[in-house]
Amino acid sequence: MRNIKDAEARRNEILDAAEELFGRKGFDGTSTGDILEKVGIARGTLYYHFKSKEDIMDALIGRVTIRLLGAAQEIAADRSIPVHERILRVVMSLNISGGSGDEIMEHIHHPQNALMHQKTQKAIINGLTPILAGIIGEGVEQGLFHTPYPYECTEMIVVYANIVFDGDVVELTEEEMAARMQAFIYNVGRLLAIKEEDLQYFTQMFSGGDDHGEGSGDE
Predict the structure, then answer these.
(1) Which helix (H) or strand (E) holds 139?
(2) Cys-Cys crosslink for 25: which of 29, 78, 176, 193, Cβ 3.0 to 4.6 Å?
(3) Cα separation of 133 and 48, whole Å?
(4) Which long-range contacts (CB under 8 A, 24 or more apart) does 11-20 make?
(5) Which phi-psi region, left, alpha or beta, contains residue 167 (left: φ > 0; alpha: ψ -120 to 50)?
(6) In order of start, what are the domains of the chain with their CATH numbers?
(7) Would you call 200 helix, strand, or coil by DSSP?
(8) What integer pLDDT is reported at residue 175 of this predicted model?
(9) 53-76 vs 2-25: helix axis angle to the nearest 10?
């Protein structure tokens, strides 16, 4: 048991060092030698835990997305929260706050970390879609949404939001971003055949979610 714990601690030590170096020097600008020097280990020890620098990058992305999606899954599973509110909370849970999560997401958006950015987007899209689709499926059962394709609609919504609102793929001014958000909410309403009163609820949530936060049980 001790050896397993030691191995896990060493693996996290390597990941922490790589995270700092990728943020400071970029993925392309960081060598395995830099990581070895930072951790103070032999090359064989590094390759015992990771096959390559790309393998380290994948593990870093996995560490962040597991935490993100874990929080989203926990929210999605709580059926005591109304469907509308759960959707908002799942989306808001993707905004990492505190600790190294903030830093790695900032690092991922650096031009020198383009591959990390691409892989992170893929992980979030693939992980978030089934979580939100489950909630939207409940909304269909409750008559809040009307679509024979809840999963496919969710996938379209997640892919669009992840790419257009990311800020790196499509460059938008604040005015353009506001217009895209209004159009996004409108088209989500059409896609899911949401009633007008429910669509207004979504509009209020996404334009001023904090105002609705605690009292949103009053549907």
Answers:
(1) helix 114-141
(2) 29
(3) 39
(4) 11/49, 11/50, 11/59, 13/39, 14/39, 14/41, 14/46, 14/49, 14/50, 14/56, 15/56, 15/59, 15/60, 15/63, 16/100, 18/53, 18/56, 18/57, 18/60, 19/60, 19/100, 19/103, 19/104, 19/107
(5) left
(6) 1-50 (1.10.10.60), 65-212 (1.10.357.10)
(7) helix
(8) 92
(9) 100
**Mean of the pLDDT values across residues 184-191?**
89
pLDDT reported for residue 111: 57
**Residue 49: what pLDDT?**
94
Tell which residue, 65, 201, 206, 194, has the closest CA to residue 136: 194
**Which tokens hold the place of 100?**
């190294």
Q: pLDDT class for 155, splitting at 50, 70, 90?
A: very high
Q: What is the pLDDT of residue 112?
A: 57
Which among 47, 49, 48, 42 has a CA at the least distance from the CA of 12? 49
**Cα–Cα distance measured from residue 121 to residue 185, given in angstroms and rounded to the nearest whole number:** 21
Cβ burial of 8 (10 Å; 0-12, 13-18, 19+) is exposed
Q: What's the pLDDT score for residue 132?
A: 95
